[in-house]
């Protein structure tokens, strides 16, 4: 744990988080869709307010969520000297096609730069059940379903920790592991800069943080003792916060085969204090995804949560339900953002969690996972 004097020497929020032992699990954004778009840097704050290619898309993102309850994660990626072509722009769209699933289904388009806003708009309007304009772009489809995409945040203008720690890790992965089946990108911020360097693995939709050189081989090659990844795993975006914490426990116990299983999650109960304990049982039954998003944010400080993870093997021969109690296990101090030069970092306490009860229910055929 960093002392007050040591804190004054920390320039980056991720240094404080890592030194104090903050567990990154449960911090992946739960989403149903991804929109990954090539867009040249710089990505300054003003760009998102004034660039005519971006501002209409931001309004559509808001409509998707507020009017339709659609959870979509937009991410910008830097055009790459090997993957990209001058005058053309790539958009990769991932979608969750069913409740219980293994990974997101991928569509990739490479269009002339001038058509970038129109294609992104067509994808989002299709999600809103508006007239299908996506058909006009079918000739631009690329079959890259076999290619895995690793996105490392290097978005310095959001937090300097992402540039300081994300850039060298990106370069190491790019130089040592990129091949015909794996592309590595620098990307925009996707939350959790206190865990820099951070990474998203697609199409699985797994989030990673506090990356180190020594664990990259295990993460990329997916061979060896999976428990070496435990302190770096932020969670799977197919699940909500407390379900992610339980899912890590299952994965650590089951091993790499778990990634091939179809999965879904459900939070059954939460232990809350004050007025939240009375509001939550009522609010959780409102059948609107945007309402449930805010309910989950409102109750992310639960003392405990009972969750279940349903699973099935790829051939459906093995299936069942894991049930777990996730409970608070103390708290640590972390810094939500890096301090400005010469300033002391602002720190706040955040709860830490552990899985205290854990069991598996067999399916009707009595098969064991």
Brief summary:
This protein has 369 residues and is α+β, with helices and mostly antiparallel strands. It has helices spanning 4-7, 13-19, 47-50, 55-66, 116-127, 160-177, 213-221, 241-254, 276-283, 289-298, and strands at 33-38, 72-77, 88-95, 105-112, 141-142, 148-153, 182-187, 199-202, 206-208, 233-236, 262-271, 304-312, 319-334, 348-362.
Your description of this structure?
- The protein is an alpha+beta fold and 369 residues long.
- 27% of the residues lie in helices and 28% in strands.
- It is built from ten helices and 14 strands.
- It has helices at residues 4-7, 13-19, 47-50, 55-66, 116-127, 160-177, 213-221, 241-254, 276-283, 289-298; strands spanning 33-38, 72-77, 88-95, 105-112, 141-142, 148-153, 182-187, 199-202, 206-208, 233-236, 262-271, 304-312, 319-334, 348-362.
- The strands form three sheets. The protein has a five-stranded mixed β-sheet with strand order 2-1-3-4-5, covered by helices on one side. A five-stranded mixed β-sheet has the order 7-6-8-9-10.
- A hairpin with a 3-residue loop joins strand 8 and strand 9 (206-208).
- Helix 6 crosses helix 7.
Secondary structure blueprint with pairings:
Layout: H1 4-7, H2 13-19, E1 33-38, H3 47-50, H4 55-66, E2 72-77, E3 88-95, E4 105-112, H5 116-127, E5 141-142, E6 148-153, H6 160-177, E7 182-187, E8 199-202, E9 206-208, H7 213-221, E10 233-236, H8 241-254, E11 262-271, H9 276-283, H10 289-298, E12 304-312, E13 319-334, E14 348-362
Helix pairs in contact: 4-5, 6-7
């Amino acid at each position: 744990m960093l002392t007050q004097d040591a804190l004054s020497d920390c320039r980056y929020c991720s240094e404080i988080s890592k030194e104090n032992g903050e567990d990154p699990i449960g911090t992946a954004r739960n989403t149903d869709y991804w929109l990954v778009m090539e867009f040249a840097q710089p990505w300054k704050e003003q760009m998102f307010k004034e660039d005519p290619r971006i501002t209409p898309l931001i309004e559509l993102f808001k409509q998707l969520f507020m009017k339709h309850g659609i959870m979509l994660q937009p991410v910008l990626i830097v055009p790459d000297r090997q993957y990209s072509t001058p005058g053309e722009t790539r958009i990769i769209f991932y979608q969750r096609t069913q409740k219980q699933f293994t990974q997101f289904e991928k569509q990739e388009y490479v269009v002339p730069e001038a058509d970038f806003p129109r294609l992104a708009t067509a994808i989002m309007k299709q999600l809103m059940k508006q007239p299908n304009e996506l058909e006009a772009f079918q000739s631009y489809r690329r079959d890259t379903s076999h290619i895995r995409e690793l996105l490392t945040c290097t978005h310095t203008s959001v937090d300097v920790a992402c540039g300081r720690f994300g850039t060298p890790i990106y370069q190491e992965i790019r130089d040592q592991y990129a091949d015909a089946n794996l592309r590595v990108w620098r990307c925009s911020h996707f939350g959790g800069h206190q865990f820099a360097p951070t990474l998203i693995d697609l199409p699985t939709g797994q989030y990673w943080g506090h990356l180190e050189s020594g664990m990259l081989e295990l993460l990329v090659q997916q061979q060896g003792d999976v428990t070496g990844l435990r302190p770096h795993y932020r969670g799977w975006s197919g699940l909500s916060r407390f379900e992610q914490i339980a899912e890590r426990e299952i994965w650590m116990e089951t091993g790499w085969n778990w990634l091939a299983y179809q999965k879904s999650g459900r939070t059954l109960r939460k232990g809350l204090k004050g007025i939240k304990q009375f509001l939550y049982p009522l609010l959780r039954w409102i059948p609107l995804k945007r309402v449930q998003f805010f309910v989950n944010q409102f109750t992310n400080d639960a003392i405990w949560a009972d969750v279940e993870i349903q699973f099935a093997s790829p051939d459906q021969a093995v299936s069942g339900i894991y049930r777990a109690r996730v409970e608070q296990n103390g708290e640590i101090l972390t810094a939500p953002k890096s301090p400005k030069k010469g300033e002391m970092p602002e720190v706040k306490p955040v709860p830490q969690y552990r899985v205290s009860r854990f069991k598996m229910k067999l399916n009707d055929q009595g098969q064991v996972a």
